[in-house]
Write a structure and sequence with these properties.
Elements (H helix, E strand, L loop, with lengths): L5 E4 L2 H11 L7 E4 L2 H9 L13 H19 L2
Parallel strand pairs: 1-2
Length: 78
Amino acid sequence: HGAFDVVAFASSTAARCTAELYGPLPANLLVAAMGRHTAQACEAAGLRVDVVPPEPGIHPLAAAVADLVDARRAVNGR
């Protein structure tokens, strides 16, 4: 219910539980998955994935999210 730009999933369980608890996420919310397995779990739960880092891990995930937000801001002029 707050003003969130991005949700980052660090595990398949987090993705599945979020989908079960909240249902569809807002269309304008960016979704990041830590790795390929987490991305597959997101998609299986009906969650769109906007970014997956080239290698799994919290630091690559944070960098991928930062890059995605920067790219979206550049496009939107914010």
